[in-house]
Automatic annotation (TrEMBL):
It comes from Candidatus Pullichristensenella excrementigallinarum. Residues 27-199 form the Xylose isomerase-like TIM barrel domain. One of its GO terms (molecular function) is isomerase activity. It holds the Pfam family AP_endonuc_2. This is Sugar phosphate isomerase/epimerase. Keywords: Isomerase. InterPro entries: IolE/XylAMocC-like, Xyl_isomerase-like_sf, Xyl_isomerase-like_TIM-brl. It comes from the Bacteria. The keyword Isomerase applies. The keyword Nuclease does not apply.
Length: 224
């Protein structure tokens, strides 16, 4: 296991006293503080497929290799819970492009969400005030589940072709527990669709953050 730094911390989302770091500056910070790898968030300013053509991917990959840091993973911020077909197609297209970016960066893993509420930028810093309660246009839970599952099954075909593993994070909304994550992974049933187990996201109370609960969750996830 490698301890890596996730680029969201350097993207200017959570601070506004200086500009966001460039990808190269982020990699430098990771090296400076002794991290063993990096995870690049695949949205602006660091990794949006809009900006990362093959040439730019090659530049970032070469820089990380020069600094001796593997790009262990890249991260999507997808939302597959919407009932509107055009929005789902937009999300699928983004993930397909992110799989391309992962391959060209040499990243073996693309982290996925089932859904994501998003953020709003106000005065140069992120807030959840507007998006704290996600809007799914009245979609039923069953409809959301089936839509998300269908999207995962479509994405995993592209991932297999690219040799990239998709890793589903147990992250709200929609996914409330690690069992929810496991259910999706077992239903997709592909070696290219795995778990991204996030212990803090097990929940925010003493029971689910206890050593016993985390040990059980880790055991249940196992090699998935």
């Amino acid at each position: 296991m490698k301890v890596g730094l996730y680029s969201i911390s350097c993207s200017g989302v959570w601070f506004n006293d200086r500009p966001a770091l460039t990808v190269e500056e982020f990699i430098d910070i990771a090296k400076k503080y002794g991290y063993e790898g990096v995870e690049i968030d695949l949205k602006r300013p660091h990794g949006s497929p809009i900006d990362l053509d093959s040439k730019r991917c090659a530049e970032i990959r070469a820089y990380a290799e020069k600094q001796g840091l593997p790009i262990c993973a890249v991260a999507a911020n997808n939302n597959f819970a919407m009932p509107i077909p055009e929005l789902i197609e937009n999300e699928l297209l983004m993930v397909r492009e992110q799989i391309r970016v992962a391959k060209e960066l040499g990243a073996p893993v693309l982290r996925l969400f089932a859904a994501w509420r998003g953020i709003v930028m106000r005065e140069g810093i992120a807030t959840y005030e507007v998006t704290r309660t996600p809007e799914y246009y009245g979609a039923l839970k069953y409809q959301q589940f089936q839509t998300i599952l269908a999207c995962f099954r479509e994405c995993v075909k592209w991932a297999e072709e690219a040799g990239v593993v998709l890793a589903l994070q147990n992250h709200e909304p929609i996914i409330k527990t690690y069992e929810d994550m496991l259910e999706f992974v077992r239903l997709v049933d592909s070696p290219y669709f795995k778990c991204c187990f996030d212990a803090p996201c097990l929940g925010w109370n003493e029971k689910v953050q206890s050593d016993e609960y985390i040990w059980k969750a880790t055991h249940d996830v196992g090699a998935l």
